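Example record

One chain of 182 residues, shown exactly as stored in the release files.
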Amino acid sequence: MAARRSRREFQSGPIELGDVSQLLWAAQGETDADGHRAAPSAGATYPLEVFCLVARDGVPELDAGIYRYRPASHSLVQVGSEPVQTELRAASYDQAWVEEAPVALLIAGVEERTAREYGARAGELYVPMEAGHVGENIHLQVESLGLATVSVGGFEDTAVADVMGFEDERPLAIYPIGQRAD
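Predicted structure tokens for this chain:
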């Protein structure tokens, strides 16, 4: 925890699939047979979706594109076959690290999942709070793996949703991840 820093500069090179797997598990992986996850969720409603954006040559074992993480099977499902880093950078107020990272994790929320149980106000409040829990898990796991990341919250919601092809999901945070430069 003492070493955790926001790092926006990456050394060139891909991310290993094992590291991506560990990061996804830290974000939303299941931690027991009852389906509880690595990050807390109000009433276990699990409103968050985690997407893994892979650049060309970003992960040797994966094709470039957009993947949705499936916690129950600890697997990725490809939902887009083209890299979107350039478009995502534009939607993120031209933050270069969004495009430069070989991998980015994008956290999105479906507020209705929590609102069904606790009401609209809870959906508005709890879902971003849960994204914060996930973000800290990502940061700490990145640090333990010797990688680099920064939390990106500065983006145009509608533009990111368009890039990602979202219908019900609300983009909440982006974590570009790369090899540490320092």
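Notes: The beta strands are 10-11, 48-54, 65-70, 75-80, 103-109, 147-149, 170-180.
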